[in-house]
Every structure is written in C-alpha cells, then in structure tokens.
Amino acid sequence: MTADSAPTTATALARWITGDLAVPAEVDAAALRHLLDGLGNAVAAARAHAADPAVSVAVGLGGPAEATVLGTGTRISAPAAALANGTLVHALDFDDTHAGGLVHATAVVLPAALAVGEQVGASGRQVLDAAVIGYEVACRVAAAAPHGFHAGGLHATMVAGVFSSAAVAARLMGLDAATTVNALGIAGSQAGGLLAFLATGASTKQLHPGFASQSGILAARLAAAGATGPETVFDGPHGVYDALATGPVDVGVILRDLGSSDPRGWETTRIGIKPWPTCQLAHATMAAAGEALAAAGVGVEEVTALHAQVHPDSASVVCATDRDLTRPVSPYAAKFSLPWSVAAILVDGHVGVGTYAPANLDRPEITALAGRITWDETPGDGVAADAPGDVVLTLADGRTVAGHVDRSPGGGSAPLSDEGLLAKFTGNAGPEAAPLAEALRALADAPDPTTLLTRAATAAAVPLEVPA
C-alpha cells in the first residue's frame, strides 16, 4: 500500500479492532445475551459429555496453565482451551445464528474471549469489549458472501471464525494495528471447514468452531512473534473470497457502519437465538408446521401429508436427497433433516436436546410422518436464514390447512424474549443456572472472569438428564 492509496479492508478493520471503542448500551446488552446463551450451551454439552473427544485432546495438549476448559477446573494453554470450548458451545447445535452470514457467532467469539482474557488477566469489561469486536468481525466477514461459503462446500462459521478469534486475541493481547493486520492475514490461511459431514453424520461440524478459535489465537501469537500475513486477505487477489466463496461478494459489508453510534448499525444486535437444537435453516418450516397443526385443531395422527416451500439455499443443506432424511444415521444427521425435525415437532409438540438422542432416530411415528413430507424450492429476496416458512397440511378428512411464519423464531422480527432466553439457559445449565447467570450479567463490572468460570464448573458437575 502506497502512502496515498486507500487502506485495505484488513488495515481499516485492524485500526478499528485496536482503537478506542464506544459500544452503545443496546449492543452491550445484546452481546451479554449471546454470551449467556453460549455459556449455557457449553455447560449443557459438558453435562451431556457431547464434546468429550475435543475436551480430552485439548487437555492432553496441556501447556502452561493459561485458560480454563469450560465446565471444569482444568487450566491449559489458551489455544488448547479454545479448541475445547469452541466445540462445547457448538456441540449440541443449539447456539446462535447470524442470518446474514449464516454463521454461529458465539461459538467462535466466547472461546477466544474467555481463553485469552484469562491468559492476559483482562478485566470483565475488556473481555466484553473484545467479544463485541469478535461478533462484528464474524458476522461481517460471513455476510460479505451470503451463503457463498456454504455454496462452495465450506462452513461459514469456521471461515469467518478464524478472523473473529484473531481479532479478539489481538485486542486482548494489546497488539497494534499493523500487527493485527498480520494476524488477520495469517488467520486467512487457516480458513476452512468442510460440509462433508452432511452426507455422513460425522461430528466434524462440532469441531469447526474449536478449530477456528484455536487458529485465530495462534494467528495473533504468530503475528506478535513477527510472522506476517497479507493485508490483501479480504480484497484479493487470491484472498479468502477469491479462493473460498461462490457467488456474489460485497467486501464493503465488512466496514459498512462499523463502530456506528447508532446501535442499528451493529451486527451484534442482529444475531438470532435458537429455540431448538437443530439446524436453523429448518426452523421456519418447523414453526409454520406447528402453526398449521394448531389451526387445524386435530391431532398429528390426522395429518396424511405436509408440503413445504423451502428456500433453495436451505434445501441444499436440510433437504439434500443424497441421504436418507427419514431415518438419519446419527443425531447430527437428524439435526440436518428438515423432514425429520418437522415430523418430530409435530409428533411431540416440542423439540429439545433429548429429541435427537440416538434411541429416537428410528421412532416409527416420526419416520412415517417424515416420509410424507415433501417440498418445493422457492427462491426469495433475502437470505435463507431469514426466509419465511410456508406449509400446507393435508388431513385425513380431505381438508388442507396452511401455516405461515414470516421468519424462523428467535431473531429478526421474532426475537427470543429475555424470559425465553432464561428458560433455555436454565434448562441447559441446570440447578446451578441462577448463580451462573448472575456472574455472566455482572461481567462488565467484574475484575476478571474467574467467578464466571468457577460457576460454570459447578453447573457442569451436575449430569444432564436427557429425556426421551
């Protein structure tokens, strides 16, 4: 970059990451809601032993006692702790989603913020500020290529997450802007995350946020040690979008309204919170199906068929016919089957962590109804995660009943209420939920995250009872 040329996107972003930060109160509140949700999901996963392989490997990596594995008293190196904690947040697929980028933001923000925050002795306010920065980076990098990474077979959470975690680490480590540019450039060479799990039921998706969090911290450390990365990592040529995105890209999204005094300019306020532990791209159809059954005023046994209108980008993920959508091969495969999840919510009236227990995958009443669910791909003006849900039920008496929702519940025009969030958190965190929630809400005024981590370990010690 010459002296009179415009700064690259990475340079401008790094200046914001390392500069004075003025966070509107509404953005702080949104970040705390998402950290609470993410912490609850991590504790639930720890209670259910849903991420044991990642936790075991991270603990085995060891290293200096810098950061705590969530839900335990074990302290290991910050990158290793972030590997475990990112996997814990995402293990149940119950964590939040930014619709514009189709990215699980907290799964890559919380692990880096807590691990590096603990490592450097940061205050609660510094951890919260770094988390807000992480939210903005993750959401903006992903939203610059809406569904573009998924279309090429990559998980946007891992692609964008390496940049988010690098930004969080750079902020907490006190790196200057030039070094942070290098951290972002190095992070770009670690972006990835294959969607190959979709056709196999493999658990690699659970690991992606852990990989991203670990890689982002390593990128910041490498930059601090003198390694360099390309400042053209976003703009190209041969940048992350050139190499990994398919379809339209607007790199300007990364910097647009960044740091605005208006809270509506912050992507942190646009992240949705999941009501159900399954792929968010099925949620609108699930909600519409529930509306239709309620309007019909009959039991699910009267439903002879269901037909849905599904956004093409959603259909490619949750309606892909290269696998059996009625008898999924694993709990994770069930979470990525729209017919199975829709059938489950109609049969049981709810969907929870226990819905996807292995013993439930071949329940005849669910598989039979799933086999009677069909769909058309219906393009819309917006992104798939914000698309409406539309279904038509056919009943045994020949009637048809329509169901519609404007978007999936939990975000946008249908945010999860504070009461709903607390109920979800309590279900995840168990009998020790109240003191853990109190510690999280007090984060901005806490001298460090120690109390929060101690409360999380206490909550995780109570086994999670997963009902059938």
Per-chain topology:
Blueprint lengths: L8 H10 L6 H24 L3 H10 L5 E2 L6 E2 L1 H13 L6 E2 L7 H15 L3 H20 L4 H4 L4 H18 L3 H12 L15 H21 L15 H5 L26 E2 L10 H14 L6 E8 L1 H7 L12 H5 L2 H11 L15 H7 L2 E5 L11 E7 L4 E6 L12 H12 L3 H9 L8 H11 L8
Parallel strand pairs: 5-6
Antiparallel strand pairs: 1-2, 3-4, 5-7, 7-8
Task: Give a concise summary.
The protein has 468 residues and is an alpha+beta fold.
Give me some keywords for this one:
2 domains, 60s Ribosomal Protein L30, Chain: A, two-stranded antiparallel ribbon, 8 strands, four-stranded mixed β-sheet, 2-methylcitrate dehydratase PrpD, alpha+beta, 468 residues
Task: Write up this protein.
By secondary structure, the protein is α+β, with helices and mostly antiparallel strands. The protein folds into two domains: 309 residues, 2-methylcitrate dehydratase PrpD; 126 residues, 2-methylcitrate dehydratase PrpD (60s Ribosomal Protein L30, Chain: A), CATH 3.30.1330. It is 49% helix and 7% strand. It contains 19 helices and eight strands. It has a four-stranded mixed beta sheet. The longest helix has 24 residues. The chain is globular. It starts with 8 loop residues before the first helix and ends in an 8-residue tail after the last helix. The mean pLDDT is 96.
